[in-house]
Amino acid sequence: MSSHRQIKEGSFHILGGDFANAGEASTSIKRELLEMGVEEDTIRRVSIATFEAEMNIIIYATAGIIRYTITPEEVIIIAEDMGPGIEDIELAMQEGYSTAPDWVREMGWGAGMGLPNMKKNSDVFKIDSVVGEGTRVDMIIKRRRNETEADQ
Amino acid sequence: MRLRQIRELLDAVIVHQAIPEDTDLSWAIATDLMSEVLYYSKDNSLLITGLTRQQAIRTAHIADIRVVVFTKGKEPDFQTLELAKDKGVTLLITPHCTFSACGILYERGMRCCPDE
Amino acid sequence: MRLKQISERLSLQPVNATEEMLSADVTGGYISDLLSDVMANAERGTLWITLQTHENIVAVAVLKELAGVVIVNGRRPSEEAVEKALQEGVPLFVTPLSGFEVAGRLYMLFHAEEIQG
């Protein structure tokens, strides 16, 4: 019972262009979720959504911060950056649309699936952006525990 | 398809093994774009890629992919190998290009991740 | 094997291909999403399978004298790519199938041809 009542939160600073450490924040959050015994499906969705958010900061922004809150009902991820912002959010949400330069594509990123991927894995997805200032993405992943766990 | 059979069919070398060779892998995905892996892969799939960088291992770990095949005989650099060890991702190197690797496995019945 | 035969057998949807383009001979397949890799390693006359949709794919196909480009997973080529492909006479195809599936089926087509002689 007590483990399900736990609320955990934390944050990670992400540096733009830091490909060497790309994925460290998401991996740490994944580890934390595993240690808390969170159900697999939730871990997978949180990990993927966070990883994409982290990569977007590394690829496009100067710097950013990823904050997370884990509750018995949901996981909240907020990714906020100081970056170029997004001019046309609707366009940016389209699968395959990307403004990434070629060198980023050669590293395996920038194929225009980042935002769609975040949306696909979240139950609530919100994006706010100001051109020249930065972007903030709010994601909520609801936990779908199985019957036995929910009854405990 | 079992890991052993995949290794044999692809003439591959296992540079890091984190799971038994009789582990059964259900699906394959072949791409060099990591978001695509995150979007389409299911757990228990095999990633075949020419992107022989840390990013491939990191992505596999996040997406619960336990086995990655680097194609065209490209050796991973030190950091990539260390990351595979650290994250428990099994890493194979095949001398075949991605096209042939897909073909060889497809011919023996391996299929891609199904759509939801 | 003719491009027409392949596109029919794999149900690839031609984006811009004319009959003349479809009569071209294909020597094999190549699958990659990294343009530098294709530039370095793809062989002339092969059919390139990729997720990339932006116009640079056409330049790469022209430079490497590839038989055509198949864009997988239901992606659509960008308008610029379609326009350039028309100018350069590079056949583009789209398919809802995955890269693994297209590569697998194409490999088997070539393999079957080899066995038949």
Topology readout:
The complex is a heterotrimer of chains A (152), B (116) and C (117).
Chain A: H1 2-5, E1 8-15, H2 24-35, H3 40-60, E2 63-70, E3 74-82, H4 89-92, H5 102-106, H6 114-121, E4 124-130, E5 134-142, H7 147-151
Antiparallel strand pairs in A: 1-2, 2-3, 3-5, 4-5
Helix pairs in contact in A: 2-3, 3-6
Chain B: H1 3-9, E1 13-16, E2 27-30, H2 34-40, E3 45-49, H3 54-62, E4 67-70, H4 78-87, E5 90-93, H5 98-107, E6 111-112
Parallel strand pairs in B: 2-3, 2-6, 3-4, 4-5
Antiparallel strand pairs in B: 1-5
Helix pairs in contact in B: 2-3, 3-4
Chain C: H1 3-9, E1 13-14, H2 19-22, E2 28-31, H3 35-41, E3 46-50, H4 56-63, E4 68-71, H5 79-88, E5 92-94, H6 99-116
Parallel strand pairs in C: 2-3, 3-4, 4-5
Antiparallel strand pairs in C: 1-5
Helix pairs in contact in C: 4-5
Name a few traits of the molecule.
heterotrimer, A: 152 residues, alpha+beta, Heat Shock Protein 90, 5-stranded antiparallel β-sheet, 27% strand, disordered C terminus, B: 116 residues, alpha/beta, Udp-n-acetylmuramoylalanyl-d-glutamate--2,6- Diaminopimelate Ligase, Chain: A, domain 1, 6-stranded mixed β-sheet, 5 helices, globular
Describe the structure.
The complex is a heterotrimer of chains A (152), B (116) and C (117). Chain A is an alpha+beta fold and 152 residues long. Chain A contains seven helices and five strands; from the N terminus they run αβααββαααββα. Chain A has a single domain (2-151), classed as Histidine kinase-like ATPase, C-terminal domain (Heat Shock Protein 90), CATH 3.30.565.10. In chain A, a hairpin with a 3-residue loop joins β2 and β3. Chain A starts with a helix and ends with a helix. A six-stranded mixed β-sheet of chain B has the order 1-5-4-3-2-6, with helices on both faces. The model of chain B has no long low-confidence stretch (mean pLDDT 95). In chain C, 46% of the residues lie in helices and 15% in strands. Chain C has six helices and five strands; from the N terminus they run αβαβαβαβαβα. Chain C has helices at 3-9, 19-22, 35-41, 56-63, 79-88, 99-116; strands at residues 13-14, 28-31, 46-50, 68-71, 92-94. Chain C has a five-stranded mixed β-sheet with strand order 1-5-4-3-2, with helices on both faces. In chain C, α5 (79-88) links the parallel β4 and β5.
Concise synopsis of the structure shown:
The complex is a heterotrimer of chains A (152), B (116) and C (117). With 152 residues, chain A is of the alpha+beta class.
